[in-house]
Design brief:
This protein is of the alpha/beta class. Helix content is 19%, strand content 20%. A hairpin with a 6-residue loop joins strand 1 and strand 2. InterPro entries: At_inactive_RLKs, Leu-rich_rpt, LRR_dom_sf.
């Protein structure tokens, strides 16, 4: 009890000391004025000075964040968050006449700027002078959902050696990804999705050895996937989808041992499904749909047992579906193989996917034979089990009456009773040849016994 009382008195003393010290803390007049001007830039119709007449660090709006400076008697603005996100994060709202607040250059300790849905109607130019004059202490530059934000990402972005996050999404920013992006050695997140960026991905991006998230999706980026991406050893998410990237996927991508999410879908990639994916042992999701990859589905699944989602729709795939996918993908939730030229049977081993699968789509291929799934699984998935557009797939008698009206399984005809599904682990012409060789040898032995030895 005595020790608890002593601890309580110590905590009470510390809180009292902080409270007393806090009475002397204040924001300097230059920074106070810079914040007022920033608020007036994003909403000139609100009288911010009357609404917040006191110290903006102590009595300001939610989006203004301050910290104690080197002197115990001063406060400095370290974050400006603008644009109402939610009641939990009620930052100052932006009006339709919002403009970029150039007064932020007068905040020497500023570490983060955040703009959410601030520039949605009036065209606002993301000028190099705005970026260039920000504090060199910047760690986060974030613009989310600003469709009227135009301009280019300046090469001066490379001056921010402490930058951790550069996020500009869903805007009209154009130009190319600057080569100077490689100078941001401490960057952990580079997200430039949903813009109008063109040109190639600079090879300098391979210098970002702290990068964990790279998302350039939804732009007009062209050229190939640079081999230097294989140097990003800390990368967890790589999303280049929805661009105009062409050529084969480089084998260096297999070096990305920590990547869990890989999306290269809806580009112009060729050269087949990259077997290097089989070395990306941390993969949870891989999406390659909407490319011109061609070729067969490779046997790479034994090392990808933790994978949850695979999307390879409309990629020009040919040949059989490997039975190994059913054997090794024991955690698979989603499989998309629709819109290809796949043939043969759905492997019996696919029945093993029933434990985890929530959607399987093999529509519009050239598959044949009996679907291998149980009545309970077909009923549970309903419309999420998509097998239509395969003229020679058929339905076993045990499934009749268990098919939902929303499922394309109900469109299948009843299988011929004499049809027996094959149950081999891996499809190969070797088993067929081995069977024929057995009969040839047997006939030779009978001929030898009857005619040679008998004579």
């Amino acid at each position: 009890m005595a020790s608890n009382r002593s601890l309580f008195l110590i905590l009470l003393f510390l809180l009292s000391a902080i409270s007393v010290a806090g009475e002397d803390l204040s924001l300097g007049p230059a920074e106070q004025e810079a914040v007022y001007l920033a608020l007036e830039s994003i909403d000139p119709f609100t009288d911010w000075r009357s609404l917040y007449p006191g110290d903006l660090c102590l009595y300001g709006p939610h989006g203004v964040v301050c910290d104690v400076g080197e002197s115990s008697s001063e406060l400095h603005v370290i974050e400006i968050n603008l644009g109402f996100v939610s009641d939990v994060s009620s930052n100052p709202n932006c009006s339709q006449n919002a403009t970029l607040p150039y007064s932020l250059s007068a905040l020497p300790f500023l570490r983060k700027i955040f703009f959410y849905n601030c520039f949605s109607s009036s065209k606002t130019i993301f000028e190099s002078s705005f970026v260039k004059n920000l504090s060199s202490a910047m760690r986060e530059i974030v613009f989310i959902n600003n469709p009227a934000l135009v301009g280019r990402i300046s090469g001066s972005i490379g001056n921010f050696s402490n930058l951790r996050r550069l996020i500009i999404t869903n805007s009209a920013v154009s130009g190319s990804v600057p080569i100077e992006i490689g100078d941001l050695q401490n960057l952990s997140q580079l997200v430039l999705s949903g813009n109008r960026l063109r040109g190639p991905i600079p090879a300098s991006i391979g210098s970002l050895n702290q990068l964990m998230i790279l998302d350039l999706s939804g732009n007009r980026i062209s050229g190939g996937v640079p081999t230097q991406i294989g140097r990003l050893s800390e990368l967890v998410k790589l999303d280049l989808s929805g661009n105009r990237i062409s050529g084969p996927v480089p084998v260096e991508i297999g070096r990305l041992k920590n990547v869990e999410f890989l999306d290269l879908s809806f580009n112009k990639l060729t050269g087949g499904v990259p077997t290097a994916i089989g070395r990306m042992v941390s993969l949870k999701e891989v999406y390659l749909s909407g490319n011109a990859l061609g070729g067969q589905i490779p046997e790479i699944w034994e090392t990808l047992k933790g994978i949850l989602g695979i999307g390879m729709s409309k990629t020009g795939l040919v040949g059989n579906i490997p039975a190994s996918m059913g054997v090794f993908l024991e955690n698979l939730c989603y499989l998309g193989l629709d819109g290809n030229f796949l043939e043969g049977e759905l492997p019996e081993q696919f029945k093993r996917l029933e434990a985890t699968a929530s959607e399987i789509n093999v529509e519009n291929n050239r598959l044949r034979g009996r679907i291998p799934f149980s009545a309970g699984f077909v009923w549970r998935l309903g419309g999420k089990l998509k097998v239509g557009g395969n003229g020679n797939l058929c339905l076993g008698e045990e499934l009749v009456g268990h098919v939902r009206s929303t499922s394309s399984v109900g469109e299948l005809e009843l299988c011929n009773k004499t049809e027996i599904p094959r149950a081999v682990l891996f499809s190969s012409g070797a088993s067929f040849l081995k069977g024929r060789l057995f009969w040839v040898v047997l006939v030779i032995q009978l001929w030898f016994c009857l005619f040679v030895r008998g004579g």
